[in-house]
Design brief:
Blueprint (H helix, E strand, L loop, with lengths): L1 H17 L5 E14 L2 E2 L1 E12 L1 E5 L4 E4 L2 E10 L5 E10 L2 E5 L2 E2 L2 E21 L8 E2 L13 E13 L2 E10 L15 E15 L3
Antiparallel strand pairs: 1-2, 1-3, 1-14, 3-6, 4-5, 5-8, 6-7, 7-10, 8-10, 9-10, 10-11, 10-12, 12-13, 13-14
Amino acid sequence: MKATLLVLCLFSCTFITAQKNNPVYIKGDFGLSNVKTSSGKGSMQFALGIGVETYVAIKKSSDFDLSLNPVLSYLKTGYEQTGGGKVIVNYINLAMPLEFVVDPPRSGESIGIAFGAGPFVGYAVSGKFNVLSGEPYKKMSFGNGIADNRKSIDGGITLKSSIRLSKINMGMQYNWGLTNLVPQDRISNGSYIKSRNFLFYLSFAVGGKK
């Protein structure tokens, strides 16, 4: 866990340094996570995340702004398997939605209403599971071999909406995983596991220009 937090801290520092002329926000996520599998859906569990985000303007007009919204976060996900066992996976996520921003002025300040969609990639840094509720957790192995539990790389599409009030962003986000998380050597009869995460988020500006 300490190594994971150190990696996230280093990424965050690099991220913030690179965005001196753009707004930088500390972002917190909370919501529900689940998976879709070839045998049905799991049961939802809480998801929690923390990270940083920024907005990189591509086009500004009187009708709308167009910008990229890179987000780097540490996201804890989980779900309950059929039969009562639980799976918990921790990811470092990089998402880059393409945002359409409606940004009318309000008393000299800006209010933004954003809608966006774009790709995300998640890298699993740790995980644990048990087969039945109440049993001790086992450490998860990531890779494509027959002895591995999950692939380490997740990927898919992020859909999001948000409202910006001065230096605060708040909104909703849906991460729709498209990657089959079953290790390559363990796929049989079309088996698959794909992630699903629905999140609320709140972010606060800590640097850069709004």
